[in-house]
Amino acid sequence: MKRRRLAYCGFYTFAQPNFFILDPELSKRILSKDFQHFTDRCFFVNEEIDPFSAHLLSLKGSQWKLRRNKISPTFTSGKMKMMFETLLNCTKDLRVLMEDFAENYQIFNANEIFERFTIDIIGSCGFGIECNSLRDPNSEFTKYGKKALKEGAWHQFKMNVSIFAPNLFDSFRIPLNSPDVTRFFMNTVKETLRYREENNVVRKDFMHLMIQLKNNVKIENDDNIGELKSKDSGTAVSLTDQQIAAEAFLFFFAGFETSARTLTFCFYELASNMEIQEKLRTEIQNVLAKYGGRVTYDAVMEMTYMQKCISETLRKYPPIPGITRKCTERYKLPDTNVIIEKDVLIFVPISAFHHDPEYYPNPEKFDPERFSSENQFGRHQYAWLPFGEGPRACIGMRFAIMQVKVGLAALLQKYKFSVNSKTQIPFVFDPMHVFLTPKHGIWLNVEKIK
To answer: Are 346 and 34 in contact (CB under 8 A)?
Structure first.
């Protein structure tokens, strides 16, 4: 279809019609300009059957608007800066582990290590719990965290049914999430809320901000992120314990795997391209020297080449290959006779845009300079969509980027990485995993810089 210069095409999944976008400009219109026609995602939501299905990612219509406006202020740059020290503390165990690998000439599976690292971060910042996954890979939090993703054919089938035939879940009262996973996270959140409220515990993390929302304390939106103007957006509705648990679960589910994969692929590319690794290390060391050798929020925000490396990693390896929207109001495509009827699913193929030589020449090459200001000029903004775009773009983008930056800064200033021969190249990606994942892991060598 692309070779025929078409901007869109269509297909069916069973009886469900789907509209597939082939043009970034049309993506911009659907995700942003004409968003009022495409406000919903296509995920299953039923708070009674599955309490953890009713979170910001899947809520629809006015429920989504209310929740988004309430939660948006918790993800501003000011709140990220507030959480930074809590996040940074999680790098201590990461550095201890890396020191051990280097001293004993051990290779390591980047997939596994960065999963455990980001579980520790999300557990600490999201739930106020020291998970210690880097010390104990079999910790309870790690066990249920990984089970939440439920790799395997049955879960993949359920995920597909929840998108293309969500009414079946309602009719047969089937929860998408495992009951034991729901119980674990629900009990964890409720116990954390109870302990903090009874003991007046204040901690610089996401859970503290959720407690403020529960108690109807207005959180300052210090940079107006995600402002949505609607007649009901100002309604004062506090969050219940169950709703807080659902949002904390989303924070965990969407935060640990995606950031772990980005770190994994970024370290793989740096280990495969030594000149890029050295250039990034030099930037890290030079910037940190200005801050007395300390990794601070301002320091990592100053690392511009690091941002280019992360952006290029997300281009080449977007955690999810595409995003969906549902047509909520009958829509006529501009300058055509094409009508998109209500309830048609819209697919925006992120991975296809990211690997299109029209926007990224030689797309399989890892080249951070694609994201220099000069090279970005003239390239369509919607040709890079790892976090989506428009009002329903990923609300946790800043936190995700901050996790990755801290991981890179903590390790690259003192360690050098190379690809071990155990890594299977080219990658075979796991078709049963929710996110883009190398089936056989990515194995790296590490040595300490003298």
So the answer is: no
